[in-house]
């Protein structure tokens, strides 16, 4: 059972095997509610990184992003109404080395359509460090393609 106060504890099956980590319970008065857990298959690599080096290793592109929607596209005169708008670019990052710039809108990442920042974050996390990816983006009224090789995210400072 997932109860208030036991978030972060193990979720076990009938055989006593850890199958997840409890994360949150949503309940209203008089109703048991719903409990959520993170799969052990998702949590284990994170736990291993934390134990071994003290932080989580993730692939990194080196950008800050906003989701492009119709309102944002209209407000800033963007050529597309969905994608991931680059709002920040880290110097010497894979994105910088690939020629991406602040204001570019990423619409495809390694053949995956990007409609919002969640799509791009998931695509980056699914990519191996050192893998070269094809990125399609809009700059102004022109569509471009470039290539970037993802690196390990810098450790937290």
From TrEMBL:
Example GO BP: proteolysis
PROSITE patterns named in the record: PDZ
Keyword set includes tRNA processing: no
InterPro entries associated with the record: Chloro_Bact_Ser_Proteases, PDZ, PDZ_sf, Peptidase_S1_PA, Peptidase_S1_PA_chymotrypsin, Peptidase_S1C, Trypsin_dom
GO molecular function, one term: serine-type endopeptidase activity
Keyword line: Hydrolase, Protease
Gene3D superfamilies: 2.30.42.10, Trypsin-like serine proteases
Segments forming domain PDZ: 62-127
Pfam families, per database record: PDZ_2, Trypsin
Protein family membership: Belongs to the peptidase S1C family.
Protein's name in the database: PDZ domain-containing protein
């Amino acid at each position: 059972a997932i109860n208030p106060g036991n978030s972060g504890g193990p979720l076990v099956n009938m055989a006593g095997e850890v199958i997840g980590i409890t994360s949150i319970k949503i309940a209203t008065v008089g109703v048991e509610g719903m409990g959520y857990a993170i799969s052990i298959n998702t949590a284990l690599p994170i736990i291993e990184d934390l134990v071994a080096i003290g932080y989580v290793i993730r692939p990194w592109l080196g950008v800050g992003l906003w989701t492009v929607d119709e309102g944002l596209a209209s407000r800033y005169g963007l050529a597309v109404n969905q994608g991931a708008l680059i709002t920040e670019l880290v110097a010497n990052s894979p994105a910088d080395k690939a020629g991406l710039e602040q204001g570019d809108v990423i619409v495809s990442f390694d053949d995956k359509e990007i409609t919002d920042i969640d799509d791009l974050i998931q695509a980056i996390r699914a990519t191996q460090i050192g893998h070269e990816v094809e990125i399609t983006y809009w700059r102004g009224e022109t569509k471009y393609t470039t290539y970037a090789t993802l690196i390990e995210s810098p450790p937290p400072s």
